[in-house]
């Protein structure tokens, strides 16, 4: 009947608006049962279960054999890692696979059969699950003794396919690869030419004493190429040039030219190209997200205009305000946006909304999130008003910064004086007394600020929350120190008691005091701009961190399979001399790389390390630098255009970063796309 149709239209509008909020595609089934299943799938509970499952299956590598998850990484001292019995981790893995099977089944059903064949990610999802399950069966057949497990390398795919922003980022990176390849090719030519020059310059001579450069670095083509490639990373600088430089200073010209051309010109050229190209592709991705949002809002308007209670018009469609309010009450959206839209509706005198008015209402979703701080308390007493003015003034905060700086300087002085003293000779009285004095000042400062600003306003500032939390922790630690070891006095060196010694307690307090000094950042505008840029990258560019985690994970699993058992304890006599030499000469990490790349593994292993360097250091670091520049430039431009408002904080998202340069889709484009919807059939 009409009532059932109206309920269906309302539910469709709710889902379309939620799709618009999350930038999701609206190309899914829109019947009543499918809409219920769709909302259930995208509910917080289901998405939390899916995220937990992805986390668990990725974390299995830390406990599966041949995991080396121990307290120390030193092969000489670490205890054997826990080896779970066969079937335990496989059971957990099977549960994760079952969740993924349900996930891909629901997704495939909701988008429909025709859309499924167009969705390459879903097809890859199913293929990954099939390969993983087959490998799981093989693993059980061999009683978990097989050396290669393909499904471990495939695990990061589950993280990748679950994030739409990660998919867009990956697509953008893929589109940027041709431009990056041209610079990498130029880098390879540069490396090859200088390798030839090096082999000619440092060729073997009759005097063996003068051939150190040839013996160590340029004996043959692979060694020469490796030496210069490592020099490009500056990891072996200046070691690689020392033998030649000792022989003749003029040889330094070769290494200087190589470093200047490679590091200063070509690597920075790569950064510039990535910044230029990747920003364009990311902009296209964000443009498509804006189109999805506008399409979802327009789809909600079209289905609401089909309600039986809405008067029909041959020329133009309308939506009743009552129907929209009904949708807003049930839709999952940010309370700030919902309240702003409802306020706009109350201010509107009309009972019906046109398509343009409907779309304009939801432009609230595109605006900056504005956080306004609560007002300060109003005191009636003249004395309290003066107190509020004095301790609420910015100069009082500057005084606190000066005191914090004095605290840092005093700690440095005491540490320098006691640097060469034995623990038995050290007197903790001065440091303890200094800490006691400054912590009491920090407590007084916090209480006076709360008195002047009010608790709600004080806590509304992140810098105050940071400052207050550390002050409370410092106070608790100081009270605990006095309770266990008594008050500071000359010759204060009591015996060890409790969980931490007196020196450990004092060190912990001092580390927190040093960390607390970061409170000065909000008072330095340029530094605050840099920090907020970094925080925005952490909050908004999680997709890039996710892809970086995928790369790290895949290379780590591959490395485990390739180099398992390459570094052994000292008891192994076959490789004992190599390990002993390394332990005596260099730190263990350099020993590890030396053993892997030279003594224990074939030369083909270098391909693994070069690929890792290219992807993680060259490509990904440059991508991050490009996005960091874009975010910083955007914030700097906005800072120049807008006056700083002390009581307002603006929060930006990735989409809002490019909001000023995005193009609004036309009505014809939106309607054309809606008419192509595989499951929604509009009346007009």
From TrEMBL:
InterPro entries: Ion_trans_dom, TPC2, Volt_channel_dom_sf. It holds the Pfam family Ion_trans. This is Two pore channel protein 2. It is a multi-pass membrane protein. It catalyses: Ca(2+)(in) = Ca(2+)(out); Na(+)(in) = Na(+)(out). The chain crosses the membrane at residues 45-63, 92-110, 122-143, 180-203, 251-275, 395-417, 429-448, 468-487, 499-521, 541-566, 578-601, 607-629. Belongs to the calcium channel alpha-1 subunit (TC 1.A.1.11) family. Two pore calcium channel subfamily. GO terms for cellular component: late endosome membrane; lysosomal membrane; monoatomic ion channel complex. GO terms for molecular function: calcium channel activity; intracellularly phosphatidylinositol-3,5-bisphosphate-gated monatomic cation channel activity; ligand-gated sodium channel activity; voltage-gated channel activity. Residues 51-278, 395-632 form the Ion transport domain. GO terms for biological process: calcium-mediated signaling; endocytosis involved in viral entry into host cell. Keywords: Calcium, Calcium channel, Calcium transport, Endosome, Glycoprotein, Ion channel, Ion transport, Lysosome, Membrane, Repeat, Transmembrane, Transmembrane helix, Transport, Voltage-gated channel. It is found in: Late endosome membrane; Lysosome membrane. Its main location: membrane.
């Amino acid at each position: 009947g009409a009532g059932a149709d109206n309920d269906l239209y309302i539910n469709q509008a709710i889902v379309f608006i939620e799709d618009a909020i999350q930038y999701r595609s609206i190309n899914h089934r829109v019947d009543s049962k499918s809409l219920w299943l769709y909302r259930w799938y995208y509910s917080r509970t289901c998405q939390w279960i899916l995220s937990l499952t992805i986390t668990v299956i990725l974390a299995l590598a830390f406990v599966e054999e041949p995991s080396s998850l121990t307290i120390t990484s030193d092969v000489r001292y670490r205890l054997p890692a826990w080896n779970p019995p066969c079937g335990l981790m496989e059971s957990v893995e099977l549960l994760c696979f079952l969740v993924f099977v349900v996930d891909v089944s629901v997704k495939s059903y909701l988008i429909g059969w025709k859309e499924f064949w167009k969705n390459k990610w879903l097809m890859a999802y199913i293929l990954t699950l099939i390969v993983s399950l087959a490998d799981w069966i093989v693993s059980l057949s061999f009683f978990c003794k097989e050396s290669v497990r393909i499904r471990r390398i495939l695990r990061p795919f589950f993280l990748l396919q679950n994030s739409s922003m990660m998919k867009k980022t990956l697509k953008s990176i893929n589109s940027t690869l041709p431009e990056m390849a041209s610079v990498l090719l130029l880098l390879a030519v540069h490396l090859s030419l200088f390798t030839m020059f090096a082999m000619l310059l440092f060729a073997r001579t009759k005097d063996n004493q003068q051939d150190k450069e040839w013996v160590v670095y340029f004996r043959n083509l692979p060694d020469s190429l490796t030496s210069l490639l490592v020099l490009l990373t500056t990891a072996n600088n200046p070691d690689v040039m020392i033998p030649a430089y000792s022989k003749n200073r003029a040889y330094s010209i070769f290494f200087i030219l190589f470093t200047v051309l490679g590091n200063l010109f070509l690597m920075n050229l790569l950064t510039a190209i990535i910044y230029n190209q990747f920003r364009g592709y990311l902009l296209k991705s964000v443009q498509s997200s804006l189109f999805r949002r506008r399409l979802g809002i327009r789809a909600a308007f079209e289905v609401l205009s089909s309600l039986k209670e809405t008067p029909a018009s041959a020329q133009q469609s309308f939506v009743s305000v009552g129907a929209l309010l009904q949708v807003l009450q049930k839709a999952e959206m940010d309370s700030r946006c919902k309240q702003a839209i409802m306020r706009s509706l109350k201010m509107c005198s009309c009972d019906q909304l046109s398509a343009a008015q409907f779309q304009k209402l939801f432009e609230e979703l595109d605006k900056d999130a504005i956080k306004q701080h609560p007002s300060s308390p109003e005191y009636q007493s003249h004395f309290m008003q003066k107190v509020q003015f004095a301790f609420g003034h910015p100069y009082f905060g500057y005084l606190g910064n000066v005191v914090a700086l004095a605290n840092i300087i005093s700690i440095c002085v005491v540490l320098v004086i006691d640097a060469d003293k034995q623990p038995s000779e050290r007197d903790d009285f001065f440091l303890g007394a200094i800490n006691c004095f400054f912590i009491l000042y920090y407590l007084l400062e916090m209480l006076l600020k709360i008195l002047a600003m009010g608790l709600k306003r004080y806590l509304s500032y992140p810098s105050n929350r940071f400052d207050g939390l550390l002050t409370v922790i410092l106070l608790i630690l100081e009270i605990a120190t006095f309770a266990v070891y008594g008050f500071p006095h000359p010759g204060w060196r009591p015996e060890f008691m409790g969980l931490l010694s007196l020196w450990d307690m004092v060190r912990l307090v001092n580390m927190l005091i040093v960390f607390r000094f970061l409170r000065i950042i909000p008072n330095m505008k340029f530094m605050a701009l840099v920090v907020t840029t970094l925080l925005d990258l952490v909050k908004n560019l999680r997709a890039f961190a996710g892809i970086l985690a995928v790369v790290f994970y895949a290379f780590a699993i591959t490395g485990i399979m390739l180099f398992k058992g390459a570094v052994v304890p000292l008891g192994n006599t076959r490789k004992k001399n190599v390990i002993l030499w390394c332990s005596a000469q260099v730190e263990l990490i350099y020993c590890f790389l030396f053993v892997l790349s030279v003594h224990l593994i074939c030369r083909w292993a270098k391909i693994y390390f070069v690929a890792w360097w290219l992807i993680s250091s060259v490509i990904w670091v440059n991508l991050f630098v490009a996005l960091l520049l874009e975010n910083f430039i955007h914030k700097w431009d906005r800072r120049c255009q807008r006056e700083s408002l002390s009581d307002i904080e603006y929060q930006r998202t990735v989409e809002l970063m490019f909001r000023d340069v995005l193009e609004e889709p036309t009505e014809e484009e939106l309607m054309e796309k809606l008419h192509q919807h595989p499951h929604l059939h509009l009346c007009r």
